[in-house]
Amino acid sequence: MTVKERKEQIQAEQKKAFEELQAAQNTVQELTALIQRQNGAITALQNVLDDQNEQLRSESNGEVAEAVAELVA
What we know:
By secondary structure, the chain is mostly helical. It is built from one helix and no strands. The protein has one helix at residues 3-72. The longest helix is centred in the middle third of the chain and has 70 residues, at 3-72. The relative contact order is 0.05.
């Protein structure tokens, strides 16, 4: 193999490696975007659960207050 042929082979390998690196970087970006969307969904669900828990606590406190009032009356 001549020096010129070897140089061309190395350049072809570099080009292929660069293209594979770009594809891998694109995959990482896509996965990062998916993770961010999932984190957003998890946060929204957590907020809904927190609201439901607060509502249940308020309802429970109201029921306890009513029961106490009935016992005292």
